[in-house]
Amino acid sequence: MSCNFTIKHYEEICNIISRSRYKICFFNDDLDDLENLLILRHDVDQSLEQSIKIAEIENKYNIKSTFFIWLRSPFYNIFEKKYSDIIYEIISLSHQIGLHFDESSYKIENEIDLNNYVDKEVNTIKGFFNLNIYAVSMHRPSKWILDNDIQFIKYINVYSKKYFEEFNYFSDSRRQWKEGCICKKININKYNKLHILIHPFWWTKEMVNFDKRITNFIQEESSKIDLDLMNNIDIYKKWIKIYLIIRYKNILGDMMSNKVPIFITGAGAPGIAGTIFSIKNNPDNIDFKIVTTDFKDTNVGKYLSESFYKVPSPENEDYIPVLKRIINKEKVRVILPQTTR
Ligand SMILES: [Zn+2]
Ligand SMILES: [Zn+2]
């Protein structure tokens, strides 16, 4: 078993938890006088889709948890059908829904303001989904909330000191277990009460690094936008291929423009394969675009270049003017003469 952020390892973690001594509780269960407690919570920050897989696995191992949904999320709209279906599905798998509350969405000057806005959001969700909300988790809680141990009148604040002092708290924030993977904490008899925060967003089918997770997310979201545009704007459906070509051409264009065009004369010069190899693997990691020329078009360098031009032989009076045109066209920044005459 290796520790990573794959769904497979999540299942292994659930398996370990389910066979452990811990009693798995919700925040609103009667926790007093109980030993060996474990509370599992999920803050749904970027993606609700990923939550359903996590909810299913937990259900398979009889684990209950609370999914804190973000009413005013810039990433998902809980009232959109596919997302409201996910919320109903999570509830049907015996989990709870909590409110993920973002203070920065409001001008909050005191506890009365805070309670009013939290109430407003809870009532909106309760009214639409016909469910109970017992706990609130703050999205990036302010110093004011944390330092003063601010409580809500009607709901449990999961950022209360209690859940950090009586409980040992572990979180996968920023896709990192600061003190090592949670799977190693369950069976060591060191902790009496555990409060675990897991962000479903980080846990994926394939093992990917942080950057790849983010780029995959951007791609998934842009495909969704394409689909919605096609469903709502007929002309977009008709021209989608053209739009995609334009978009990717722009992206590729940007990528190319970050490369440094290097102009090598003599694609058939002795040792050219080694020269190009050294440029591509330069120790400074400069991303060069290899542009070559030769008066013959059967040579090795041509096949190792991103652009190749057949030019007159160096003795020809057109040689320099042709080279100048290529240099302008390719926006060449470096010239490496390799012609042997
Ligand atoms: Zn692990
Ligand atoms: Zn958050």
Question: Can you give keywords for this protein?
Answer:
single chain; 341 residues; alpha/beta; TIM Barrel; Rossmann fold; 11 helices; 40% helix
Question: What's the structural blueprint in terms of helices and strands?
Answer:
Blueprint: H1 7-18, E1 23-25, E2 37-43, H2 49-60, E3 66-70, H3 81-92, E4 96-101, H4 111-129, E5 135-138, H5 143-148, E6 156-157, H6 162-165, E7 168-171, E8 193-197, H7 210-232, H8 234-257, E9 260-265, H9 272-280, E10 288-294, H10 300-303, E11 307-310, H11 319-329, E12 334-337
Parallel strand pairs: 1-2, 2-3, 2-8, 3-4, 4-5, 5-6, 7-8, 9-10, 9-12, 10-11
Helix pairs in contact: 1-2, 2-3, 7-8
Bound molecules: zinc ion (ZN) (2 copies).
Give an overview in words:
- There is one protein chain.
- The chain has 341 residues and is an alpha/beta fold.
- It folds into two domains: 7-208, Alpha-Beta Barrel (TIM Barrel), CATH 3.20.20.370; 246-337, Rossmann fold, CATH 3.40.50.20.
- Helices cover 40% and strands 17% of the residues.
- The chain is built from eleven helices and twelve strands.
- It has helices at residues 7-18, 49-60, 81-92, 111-129, 143-148, 162-165, 210-232, 234-257, 272-280, 300-303, 319-329; strands spanning 23-25, 37-43, 66-70, 96-101, 135-138, 156-157, 168-171, 193-197, 260-265, 288-294, 307-310, 334-337.
- The strands form two sheets. Strands 1, 2, 3, 4, 5, 6, 7 and 8 form an eight-stranded parallel beta sheet that branches. The chain has a four-stranded parallel beta sheet with strand order 11-10-9-12, sandwiched between helices.
- Strand 10, helix 10 (300-303) and strand 11 form a beta-alpha-beta unit.
- The N and C termini lie far apart (62 Å).
- The model has no long low-confidence stretch (mean pLDDT 90).
- The structure holds zinc ion (2 copies).
- One zinc ion binds next to loops.
